[in-house]
Task: structure prediction
Amino acid sequence: MEMRTFKNAVVLFIAMGAYAGKFPRIPGTAGTVVGVILYLLIKDLMFSWYVIACILVVGIGIWTAGIAEKLLAKKDAPSIVIDEIAGYLVSMAFVPFSWGIVISGFVLFRFFDITKPWPLNWLQDFHGGIGVMLDDIGAGIYANAILQASCYFIGGR
Result:
């Protein structure tokens, strides 16, 4: 296999969330499930390592999403789901673990990702990988704020 072809295959594999983005009709939801799995793998990391993991996923996401857009010849192609993976990790940052919170984070993140309330709808207008990633990071921040508030006011479990 030619090196360029191999690089493109790796980029698409990452950008499509291990090909979860090829799931029919609901690629974003399938990508978020990959985010849940990754979260479950890293949830017990120390605070600083969780932040580093999120930054790495966002950085890799910006890079791979930008290249994947060009390879797929489509702006923010639905099959690019690394943004959902990163957004879900942001949703779950610094909230206590419980299955109820994992599910609530999933529902909240998908709600904000799909509805794209202001300014998320504006953030997706940026070009390249940053445009793919920003609105989902924002959706993750919105979901995280609600999770944090609910944990504070009604308890985290």
About this structure: The two ends are 50 Å apart (CA to CA). The chain has one domain: 30-154.
